[in-house]
Amino acid sequence: MGKVFVCDHPLIQHKLTYIRDKETKTKDFRQLVDEVAMLMAYEITRDLSLTDVEVKTPVATANCKVISGRMLGLVPILRAGLGMTDGILKLHPTAKVGHVGLYRDPESLQPVEYYTKLPTDVQERELIVIDPMLATGGSANAAIQVLKNNDCSQMKLMCLIASPEGVKAVQEEHPDVDIYVAAIDSHLNEKGYIIPGLGDAGDRLFGTK
Ligand SMILES: O=P(O)(O)OC[C@H]1O[C@H](OP(=O)(O)OP(=O)(O)O)[C@H](O)[C@@H]1O
Ligand SMILES: O=c1cc[nH]c(=O)[nH]1
Ligand SMILES: [Mg+2]
């Protein structure tokens, strides 16, 4: 079963409080999501492999490390996943970015797929699937399935807020995928919204409501 990591660094928790606050307006909301994504990227890439290199400093030779192994790929789930992408790219500017477009049908709560565009070498990359909200888990499961259908095998899921129901759904459908979140909230309401959550992440990021 996939592991679940709660990124409980005080800076992440502090910023998440203001992300949740309904008084936080679009500009600040967007900036805070960007900052938390960058901080979470620091945690999520802790296990990147390193290889030894020598560099010549102005006075001697230093034994150093550089990141090795698989290159990184980011896969934001449109739309709201876009809000976390630039923050991660600030730490990993060479990562390639694929997009999976999904929206959740408001009645059935089922994901509806409308767009996929992936880097040509996506199968060789270590992927981070990004979405601020893991609610029923339908969208994350569908996005992961899109990647698996494209022969990808190495991926993690990164969300700001998860419900217990969403975590369980991903663990059951994709037991090979570890999940990184800033918080696991109480439950889903009857409309499939995370409680207490932050409301509709896409609408708050893009000012569409
Ligand atoms: O776990 P689930 O129950 O599938 O819900 C989570 C999904 O809902 C939101 O997207 P939404 O459908 O609102 O699309 P948007 O990003 O375009 O706003 C969110 O960003 C997730 O993708
Ligand atoms: O709470 C939720 C659930 C799904 N999508 C959101 O944006 N928020
Ligand atoms: Mg939305």
UniProtKB/TrEMBL annotation:
User: What's its EC?
Assistant: 2.4.2.9
What Gene Ontology molecular function terms does this protein carry?
Answer: uracil phosphoribosyltransferase activity
Q: Known catalysed reaction(s)?
A: UMP + diphosphate = 5-phospho-alpha-D-ribose 1-diphosphate + uracil
Say yes or no: keyword Transferase present. yes
Binding-site residues, 5-phospho-alpha-D-ribose 1-diphosphate: 79, 104, 131-139, 200
This molecule's function is given as:
Catalyzes the conversion of uracil and 5-phospho-alpha-D-ribose 1-diphosphate (PRPP) to UMP and diphosphate.
Listed name of the protein: Uracil phosphoribosyltransferase
